[in-house]
Amino acid sequence: VPAPSGGHNSNRGEIHMKIFNTMTRKKEEFVPLEPGKVKMYVCGPTVYNYFHIGNARPFVVFDTLRRYLEHRGYEVTFVQNFTDIDDKMIRRANEEGITVKELAERYIAAYFEDAKLLGVRPATVHPRATEHIPEIIALIQRLEEKGLAYRTDNGDVYFDTQKYRSQYGKLSGQNLDDLESGARIEVDDIKHDPMDFALWKGQKPGEPAWESPWGMGRPGWHIECSAMSMKYLGETIDIHGGGQDLIFPHHENEIAQSEGATGKTFVRYWMHNGFLNIDNQKMSKSLGNFFTVRDIREKYDLEAVRMFLLSAQYRSPLNFSQEQIAQAKAALDRMYTARDNFEFLKQGAQERAMNAEEAQLVEDTKACMKRFDDAMDDDLNTADAIGAIFELIKHANVTLKPGCAKEALEAVIATFKEMTGVLGLVKEKEEEKNEEVDALVEARAQARKEKNWKESDRIRDQLKEMGYVVEDTAQGQKVRRV
Question: For residue 139, what pLDDT is reported?
């Protein structure tokens, strides 16, 4: 696929990214529907609580995929929904004596706050189910017209899986016979078949509801994603992502209702991240190892959590433990130390021709960038991409010294920023500016000038308590966070 024009990396020749497609169970070359543009939908949270560490993995993974595609020059339209009406939300709102809308507003605001600390950028569009009722109703009506949906006496509307029998189960690799044999259908069940799923739910007493051709009610869970994906991205999209747990029934049902209505392929590449375990056990409330990102924020810097989540290829299972987070933080600290060293070397960098070692460093830098891109092109292998960043740091540490050639230093800095930016790691200096720290560093410089060593040491200790180490060098004070 020729690199599209317009992207800042569009001069890198051809892009041959391979993505593991859950539908075909193999890696396939990624070729978007429209050259230079990517349409991508990722399932967002049901906003009845703070999102948990398991949810954080797809949010970080698909944010990274989007960043990488943009780095390669693509224009990405990224849609991530909020499910803001469902049984859990109704129950929670009733318990708290507030409206479902008030509950949704609280947890949507919390999502954006926690996601920002994880380095997850807002999507192009964050649609909410309750704001797309007309689109949802129109899609259900299309399914009725095709004979793929039926009404019940209580105002529910169901998708008829028997009418879609030959196609149902293709994503999860299951067929209806196997699925039905594992299900139990009660005598008074209003569904025609145990595998039929609700498109619309008739109103029960005290529930929020909207007018529809089937009476007052609300959308089922699966239908919202199809309706909102079609509205913002069209009837066929490039990539649909989410956690492995969504393959069945959620994504299976999305395919059935979308393709049943349009007769077109709904998604060309299905991507699913692996599970996250806690201390080698599946996360569950009953085991007491269920953590929201809000809980984790109290103990850990969420940037270290992002580093941890990217430390394994996204389809691999990942084990969350204090030891793993400590390792991720140590790796992140090494990146920050490198960034601070580069910034410090800028002060004495010289406008001169590069020597042989510096010229070789520039070539090594290009090789590291290629290794990074190759890793990401191989089904978003962030683990190997992180390896390429540390290889760059190693080369730079060996070659760059005070008074180095500005050209070599700038090549390293630009590539380092490019790589870490794609992974959403290492904040820019400006973002973390701390006026109190700056004032203390200045005061310490003044104390040293006046040979007031006691005051100089006191300020150094104060900075250390605040998480900053000061080193005295021939070029002045060098400050880095720890």
Answer: 98
Cis peptide before 249 (omega within 30 of 0): yes
214 and 203 Cβ atoms separated by less than 8 Å = no
Q: Give the chain's radius of gyration (CA, Å).
A: 27
Look at residues 24, 55, 19, 25 and name the one whose alpha carbon lies nearest to residue 40. 19
The two tokens of residue 349 are 């960098």
* Gap between the Cα atoms of 56 and 52, Å rounded: 6
For the entire predicted model, the pTM comes to 0.89
Taking the C-alpha atoms of residue 163 and residue 256, their distance in angstroms, rounded to an integer, is 10
Contacts of 436 (CB under 8 A, 6+ apart): 466
Measured CA angle at 38 (ends 172, 51), to 5 deg? 60
Task: Give the tens place of pLDDT for each residue, 212-240.
Answer: 999 999 999 999 999 999 999 999 999 99
As a whole number, the mean pLDDT across the chain is 92
At 188, is the pLDDT very low, low, confident or very high (cuts 50, 70, 90)?
Answer: low
Say whether 437 sits in a helix, a strand or coil: helix
Helix axes 302-309, 53-71, angle to 10 degrees: 70
Alpha-carbon distance 462 to 317, whole Å? 42
Strand pairing class (318-320; 276-278): parallel
pLDDT tens string 137-152: 999 999 999 999 999 9
- Rounded-to-5 percentages of helix, strand, coil across the chain: 50, 15, 35
Residue type, 103: L
Burial category of 100 from C-beta neighbours within 10 Å (exposed 0-12, middle 13-18, buried 19 and up): buried
Reported as type and span, the H/E element at residue 293 is: helix 293-297
